[in-house]
Amino acid sequence: MRRYIDYYLTSMKVSILSQIQYRVANYFYMIGMIAEPVIYLVVWSTIAQQQGGSVGGYTPGTFAAYYIVWTLVRNMNIVFTPFGWEWRIREGMLSMELMRPMHPIHSDIAYFAGWKFVVILLWLPLAAFLSWVFKPTFDVNLMEVVVFFLAIWGAYLIRTMLLSLLGMITFWTTRVSAIFELYFGLELILSGRLVPMTLMPQWVQDLSNYLPFKWTFYFPIEALVGSLTLQELWTGVGMQVLWIVIGASLLNLVWRAAIRQFSAVGG
Amino acid sequence: MPPVITISQLAKHYQVPEREGGMKAALTSLFNRKYKTIKAVDNITFNIEPGEVVGFLGPNGAGKTTTLKMLSGLLHPTSGEVRVLGYEPRHRSHDYLRQITLVMGNRNQLTWDLPALDSFDLQRAVYGIPADDFKRTRDDFIELLELGDLVKKPVRNLSLGERMKMEIVAALLHKPKILFLDEPTLGLDVTMQRRIRTFIAEYNRRYNATVLLTSHYMADVEALCKRVIVIHHGHILFDGDLSSLVNQFSSYKTLSLSLQNSNAPLEKYGEVVSREDGKVTLRIPKARTSEVTARLLSDFQVDDLTVEDTPVDDVIDQVFSQKEAT
Q: Average pLDDT for residues A231-248, to the nearest whole number?
């Protein structure tokens, strides 16, 4: 266990040092990324104003809060992609990782976790700027802040598991772009990335309860900007833990088959 | 002492789809796909003793890398047995992986934007190397490879040779007992090749490590390996001392002469390989070496004469071409 803690800390340090090298590129990337939530925010604020000040309980102020927190959650959702798995196998990089006495998923989790610290640091001035422009309405208590902090890391882990599972398809076939796009489309609608889930039809909301997507996006945002009860907050964290366990178990299962396939045909 | 590497009747076969060119063949293959079996490695057997440095030679596609990948656990054999340090590599147990290393000349495990020192530290964490031990080994290797302050430069700013030296340090920090080196000097200049060779020899001497090395540079093999295994089309053609390989497969010697009369007719003495500025290289049957040398000395004004075995490169070429011919 001590070795893994040491590995995670060292890898996160290496990641932070690497990403600092690219601080300008990282910043432009993040600035580019705010275009999407700003469009959603402007559209929904306009609709809210036209409908007498709110839509589905969201005012322009709460929409602003939702989409500003969205920018951080979106960044926390960035993990090693399925396309990365394809590259890793095609370029033979996986072989080098398999030579280490450690599962490659640790290197992905640790490296991207390190990156998140740089992201959070870079996000703060962006959030300040967006808040100055859009005047969000925040009503936050300490428990919500604590759960939000846990939830963004829970979201990160769930998405790491899911996208790694998706990436492992590339062990069998490299023509997977269509599958990836289908997945990302579903995720866009069912996660709360496009609109807050409460604005979706009831059947979509019901469906999303049984899928992992909303626990990676909607729940962390709602934990901070919504008005969830204490029970709802901790139920959400519990659901995240459940999806992490399901994801890790599936990953373990698929990994064994994937590595058998890799060992049969090489990389 | 028992062998550290035991390979018995090891084989790796692949099924690859095969079809003719053209639309008709493409459509037919949708419904009736044909496969061809490629025997990358076909029933090879050998043992390697602790501390041996063995050259694993063969042309591209001979089965060298496939064998190294099976030995390091990256590929599962189709049949046969492999044991390394008592482990079955295909299980890739962490205890096993901690005792071996695989260096591939075209693979990169260093973090591109950071000084190599940071990548070394990551290797320390991966292998759980105690801090004192790590620092001692790292500094030792840095000195042996004359890396100096290069370890503080971002990897992206290093030359190919410098990067390769860093790769080797990173791959050996955990002091593995078995080294699988696949073209470790690929693309490097002569000086850099020599430095890496010297380092591998020193590592082998200090830690009694076992080394299985593939290289297309015969200078690597001659400098490091007493024993060579020659593989071709997945079969072992030769396994023994490098000197025996030369004796067994080379029936020629090379004579280099410096003559005062640079146009002297020499064809009747042997095959003229080159002739430039009074310097001539002749290839003569081994059995006639003494006789031809004596005749040349009596017939011409010879300033200098050397007799050498055929270069190992040429011997290996002959091995492969003889095999192709049969």
A: 96
pLDDT of B261 higher than 80 = no
**Strand arrangement, sheet containing B271-276:** B271-276, B279-285, B252-259, B302-309
- Which residues from A are below 8 Å from B when comparing CB atoms? 3, 6-7, 9-11, 13-14, 17-18, 21-22, 92-93, 95-96, 98-102, 260, 262-267
Residue A100 has which token pair? 């280490």
- Cα(B27)–Cα(B33) distance, integer angstroms: 10
CB contact under 8 Å between A266 and B127, yes or no, is no
Query: What is the distance between the alpha carbons of residues B263 and A39, in angstroms, rounded to a whole number?
Result: 86
What integer pLDDT is reported at residue A85 of this predicted model? 87
pLDDT of residue A49 exceeding 60: yes
Tokens of B268: 């009747």
The answer to whether the Cβ–Cβ distance between B118 and A17 falls below 8 Å is yes
Q: Which residues belong to CATH 3.30.70.980 in chain B?
A: 251-309
User: Which residues in chain B are closer than 8 Å to A102, comparing Cβ atoms?
Assistant: 94, 126
Q: For the residues A14-37, what does the mean pLDDT come to?
A: 85
The pLDDT, as a whole number, for residue B25 is 77
Tell me the HSE value of B154 on the side-chain side, using a 13 A CA sphere: 9
Q: Exposure string (b/e) for A118-143, b if CB count within 10 Å is 16 or more? A: bbeebbeebbeebeeebebeeeeeee
Mean pLDDT along residues B253-272 = 83
pLDDT of residue B105: 67
pLDDT reported for residue A89: 84
Q: Where in chain B is the domain with CATH 3.40.50.300?
A: 5-247
Domain B251-309 belongs to what topology? Alpha-Beta Plaits (3.30.70)
Structure tokens at A179: 């599958």
pLDDT of residue A21: 82
Q: Where are the domains of chain A?
A: 2-265
| DSSP codes joined into one string, B146-208 | T-GGGGGSBGGGS-HHHHHHHHHHHHHTT--SEEEEESTTTT--HHHHHHHHHHHHHHHHHH-
State pLDDT tens for residues B63-117: 998 999 999 999 999 999 999 999 999 999 999 999 999 998 666 788 888 999 9
User: In the numeric block, which tokens belong to residue A145?
Assistant: 């802040």
CATH class, range B5-247: alpha beta
Please tell me the pTM assigned to this model.
Answer: 0.83
Q: How far is B118 from chain A (nearest CA, A)?
A: 7
> What is the number of CB-based contacts under 8 A between chain A and chain B?
79
Strand partners, B103: B181
- Chain A nearest CA to B146, separation (Å): 25
Facing residue for A263 by CB, picked from B75, B100, B111: B75
Identify the DSSP state of A200: S
* pLDDT score at A57: 86
Question: Which of A93, A101, A267 is nearest residue B97 as measured by Cβ atoms?
Answer: A101
Q: Which of B66, B118, B126 lies at the smallest CB-CB distance from A100?
A: B126
Identify all chain B residues contacting A262, using CB atoms and an 8 Å cutoff: 74
Give the 3-state secondary structure of residue B8. Answer: strand
**Higher-scoring residue by pLDDT: A1, A40:** A40
Residue A55, both tokens: 């839509």
Rounded distance between C-alpha atoms, residue B120 and residue B9, angstroms: 38
How confident is the model at residue B206, as a pLDDT? 93
